[in-house]
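User: structure tokens for this one?
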Amino acid sequence: MKKWILSAALVVFGLMLFPKTAHAENVANYSVDGTTVTVNTSTGDAWAGQRIEAALDYAKVHATDSAPITVKVPSGDYTFNQSKAKMYEASGYTATVVFRGLHLYSNTLLDVSGCTFRMADGNTSLEQFVQFGNLSSVGTVISYNGVTNYNRSASCAGYNGFKNIGIYGGTWVGNSNYTHTLFKFYHATNVELRNMTVAGGGAKHQVEAAAMNNFRITNCTFRDYTPKNSTAANEAVQLDVPANRNLIVTGYEDGTPSQDIY
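Assistant:
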């Protein structure tokens, strides 16, 4: 009996010295079936955004031109929180990072039909719902295609940065006090937004796109945006040119115009 009490005391003491790591530090939770990756999450999951990001990181590493990957998210109502998490290490993350939104790379389709996404109140670090490439201006920069800070490199010039990307479905609700563009895309070929509803937001635009080749927006709805400044260039979709670091913070500035916009 005394040995048992002593052992229990040592266990408690050990837990005090070495607290159990929170599950936030390993958010990768998805199943892979060929070229389909299904995120294991459901309504109320506080780590849903991080889990989706981890699945997109898997696609970043494994998707190819001949075998694009579809990342599927179960129907539900999800809130994106900025808490730190450990992502898919093979994609370049070696430590926990603050979640700043979803990042898509080439040959990836994000199927979120039946999903509603919201931004947690008080977000200070979440930058976009979705953007292309490595984390942006205040985030951790990771390599892509063997290039560090890929988005600002010549490898990302023209329309050659990213290709064959789609976002299908979802209702994306931005906070009115959120000052970043909700979606930001640049230097890409063959991109489609389909059956999306984009609501709210507090920046000048809900979607900003620059240096896009064959960019399609199909059956999407943009609504409920109240501009902070009624005299500014407020738009649901802004088609821009990558020639001003204030507009495309992480993009390669080569002045490429967009073409073939539908």
